[in-house]
């Protein structure tokens, strides 16, 4: 009898060990479903201006990618913003970038070179349009910018697209009806109230370039109301990616004093090319989603990256590698 129990005990031990191995194997499959060896090589990521959210996000994402793919060299390139970013990826100058959906659509509608090669990896977070003036300014609306010195963003930036469209929507010709200046978030805030009467910015909130001067300078935001966004929509094209929203009161507490700011937003996409290695893109997609909280602790807008909405990369098709990742985690 004792021999029988001994055999049964050994059998249970063996069965338990096998079951444990199966569970461990499944766990490893779940954690590393992309292959046993991380991708290696060199990739280029086009970001944005040094004081903007794209650059900060790119720096933090590079650090996360280094943890998951230690043999992958990620090189960051600063840029003017969305328009230049789209052009760089389409041409192959960069492998990955962040760009606003309206800039991507504008490039496609214009028949930009290699536009058909652009692919989406994930929908990230929304950019908020921020029209900034000194606190004692008489500017109360976009229409009041006529005759003023206005920074409309760097050439090839996403904010220049938006600023130009908003000005035209209220009957202002950016070339003749204002003194248009090419400042971005890196120089606009410090020149406000001196060489500038107002500046446009479009980015995740809060943006470091504004949050820093909010501690020492007095400025306010000019609202962009729903009627103006509706007027933009009537012009068609890429304007369909703009939506009315409120900038949350927590974005710049010392400036907003507990009040939301009516404005408009546009979604940001992580963009690549169709010919980029699917396995690399699959790994990168996983890192983007898994690092949301870590990056979000430093870039607040990154907290909004969400698996449920990440696949909506309109106007771009999903890259095959990203598609593989989303299929692997589909409930």
Describe the SSE topology.
Layout: H1 2-31, E1 41-46, H2 53-68, E2 72-77, H3 82-91, E3 96-100, H4 101-109, E4 118-134, E5 149-151, H5 158-169, E6 179-181, H6 188-191, E7 198-203, H7 208-213, E8 219-221, H8 226-234, E9 243-247, H9 253-256, E10 261-273, H10 278-290, H11 292-296, H12 307-310, H13 320-328
Parallel strand pairs: 1-2, 1-3, 5-6, 5-7
Antiparallel strand pairs: 3-10, 4-7, 4-8, 4-10, 9-10
Helix pairs in contact: 2-10, 10-13
Structure in words:
- The chain contains 13 helices and 10 strands.
- It starts with a helix and ends with a helix.
- It is globular.
- Helix 2 (53-68) crosses helix 10.
- 40% of the residues lie in helices and 20% in strands.
- Helix 5 (158-169) links the parallel strand 5 and strand 6 (179-181).
- With 331 residues, the protein is of the alpha/beta class.
In percent, how helical is the residue content? Answer: 25-40%
- Count of helix runs: 13
What sequence of helices (H) and strands (E) makes up the elements?
A: HEHEHEHEEHEHEHEHEHEHHHH
The biggest beta sheet reads: 10 strands, mixed
User: Which term fits the overall shape?
Assistant: globular
Number of strands: 10
Kindly report how far apart the N and C termini lie: 48 Å
What percent strand?
15-25%
Low-confidence stretches: 1-5, 17-31
Overall mean pLDDT:
90
Helix-strand category: alpha/beta
Q: From the alpha-carbon coordinates, what is the Rg to the nearest angstrom? A: 24 Å
